[in-house]
Amino acid sequence: MATAPLNFAVFNKKDWQQLASKYVAPDSLQMTPQILQNIKAYNDQIAVDDVFDIYGPLVSYIKLRYDQYHRDINERANFLGRPAAPGPFIIGIAGSVAVGKSTTARLLQYLLQVAFPKKQIALTTTDGFLLANETLRKKGVFDRKGFPESYNMTALLSFMNDLKEGRSPVKSPKYSHDQSDVLVGEYDTFENPDIFIIEGINTLQASAETPVYISDFFDLSIYVDADTDLIEEWYIDRFKALLASAVAAGDDNNFFAAYTKLPTIEAVASATKVWQEVNLPNLNDYILPTRERADLVLHKQANHQIDTVWLRKF
């Protein structure tokens, strides 16, 4: 397990759980095993107790930051003599493929909506801003899908800017994990969200195309962390789950359909090769170095259980 930098306070699960929750009462966060099952991703594992122990204090902390954000923009507007900017409070979630970002994002969306029923809580992923597979092949970088050069950063930054400036509606391209490709001409549309969550492996990265970071638009950033060996295990477990889903669907257009025609041992060996040659280098070279840019780090151990929380002090 990595050592937190000096500018982070480190909490074990017990200490984090005991933080005062005066902003959001833990018992107000309605959660059942059935709801949690619908929220979590394919092979992710999380217990109801973890929701209250880890995410309860986190929702309280987000409420604190959300209130501070609105005080700040109102005071800044008064200073400038201009109307307050209508943009949403934006939460960015980063971390490796298969580490559980999607579950964290969806769980936070649900809990924030329960905690603040009058607010609109929206969620999207940076996957939709990947270049289409056809474009990646033409550029000769299909094997580097997920690396910085495989994203349309100009479009992503434009989306973030429009969102933060309060323009409405804004659209983000849809991505299909079944097809492993962007869905051409299909979008998710958002109108005046109060809190906006965006998750993706690249949310804390810089871009060679522009000096602007995606995280420049964030009001809170979270990095989901785990030891590399565990992430590889979860990646292979997820691959097996997606493979089983493809078999059940019987859809030849499914990205995993080709793998279903292979012996299981060969299919898993192919996935392991992709991890070692694509996802692991991407993690080591581009994703993991962004961890210390986050405001908060959720570190997982076996079974996706969060054992440590790093909280930025300054």
TrEMBL record:
Top EC group: transferase
Native organism: Weissella hellenica
Family label: Belongs to the prokaryotic pantothenate kinase family.
GO BP annotations listed: coenzyme A biosynthetic process
Name of the protein this chain belongs to: Pantothenate kinase
Taxonomy of the source species: Bacteria, Bacillati, Bacillota, Bacilli, Lactobacillales
UniProt-recorded Gene Ontology molecular function terms: ATP binding; pantothenate kinase activity
Leader sequence residues: none
Any single Pfam family the record assigns to this protein: PRK
One GO CC term, this protein: cytoplasm
NCBIfam families xref list: panK_bact
